Amino acid sequence: MSPSPSRHPNATPAEEPPLSTEVLLALHDAMLRARCLDERLIRMNKQGDGFFWVGGPGEEALNASLGLLVHKGQGPEYDYLHLHYRSTATLVAMGADPTDTLRQMKSTASDPYSAGRNFCNHYSVHRWNVAPVSSPIEVQFSMAPGTAIANKRASGRGITIVQGGDAGTAEGDFSTCLIWCSRPGHELPCLMIVANNRWGISTLSADQHAEKHIIDRAKPFGIKSAIVDGNDPEVAYRELKKAMDYVRAERRPFLLEATVSRLYGHSSASGANSVPDEPDCLVLFENKLEERGTLTRLAMDELRAKYTQELLEASKRIRDEPQPKGEDIWKHIFAERDGASKADPKVGG
Fold it and tell me: What are the residues whose beta carbons fall under 8 Å from the beta carbon of 91, sequence distance 6 or more?
């Protein structure tokens, strides 16, 4: 099957009715909470309450939409998620407690995602099929075909969703995913999402990629694809839903490229300072909601102040939570039935 024509992000989409007020408000709430959360994480890092920050300000429109659309649950009948470290808004939209993300930044033993072992925004939620986020970029694309095979064997509506950035597509793991998901007669129900912010740390994508768009990489494999404006939550929500519906129904792969912004640079390694000349999906969305009369500016400002204060208070509380103990180093390595590893420290050297 030949891939469908891609859509350029500057193209004018066909006129479609607006999303329901309920969905618009849910999108705004998740986007705003995720933005306030990342801003609090940046402050914590700069105040010495965390070793490193890397997050997703500028990707909230795309990621909140994904979180609201996921078929959430545990097991191959539900969606598997292989995310990256800019996916905070996806977890927030799925219902994750932002305080737990603060715990991971502070490296507390109460961090439910990694027990204080990993960087912030490195999520892992067994009950929601969220595979552990990895710091080495793009390895999630090598893992995704495995859960997609499980989805296919289960014969349900569950699919595998894997997400990464444009720079990471230069890694061989991305090509591995394209190949394994498109083998003739063995196609897999996998939605591949590339959030294109045009940067790989400090390298422009134009200096790295010869192809005009990342989705051009799908054409030789016959994978259907689209490119969308990831800074518009209404567009992102609609196009994600179309792509997910296709993968669910056809049990075949789809590659979606979303143009997004990087509002605080790459990470704390580059300063995590605001980049003023990037389009801000949250500002653009709030302007639209205000113009339509969906939300007033006062209501949005009050909501931001509320979330900002809640996160400030939460960050103060977790300062007193315990750090991991040295003897706990052997936990969470092998499968555990009672919550404590029975592994012999001498095994495996």
Answer: 67, 83, 101, 123, 125, 130
Select from 167, 197, 178 the least CA-distant residue to 9.
197
Q: Contact at 8 Å (CB) between 260 and 281?
A: yes
Nearest Cα to Cα of residue 51 among 152, 137, 119: 119
Strand pairing report for 80-82 and 160-165 = parallel
150 class by beta-carbon count within 10 Å (0-12 exposed, 13-18 middle, 19+ buried): middle
Nearest to 50 by CA among 126, 112, 101, 113: 101
CA distance 335 to 172: 29
On whether the CB atoms of residues 66 and 72 are closer than 8 A, the answer is no
* Residue 293 CB burial class (10 angstroms; 0-12, 13-18, ≥19): exposed
Contact between 304 and 36 under an 8 Å Cβ cutoff? The reply is yes
Write the pLDDT tens digit of every residue in 8-55: 443 334 467 789 999 999 999 999 999 999 999 999 999 999 999 999
Q: How far apart are CA 192 and CA 135, in angstroms?
A: 18
| E runs forming strands in 72-175 | 80-82, 160-165
Question: What's the length of the chain?
Answer: 349
CATH number of 21-321: 3.40.50.970, 3.65.10.10, 3.40.470.10, 3.40.50.2000? 3.40.50.970
Domain boundaries, given as residue ranges, for the chain? 21-321
Query: Does the pLDDT value for residue 136 go beyond 60?
Result: yes
**Confidence band for 60, pLDDT divided at 50, 70 and 90:** very high
pLDDT of residue 337: 64
Residues whose CB falls within 8 Å of the CB of residue 274, separated by 6 or more in sequence, listed in order: 263, 264
Structure tokens at 2: 């030949």
pTM, two decimal places: 0.90
Give mean pLDDT, residues 218-224. Answer: 96
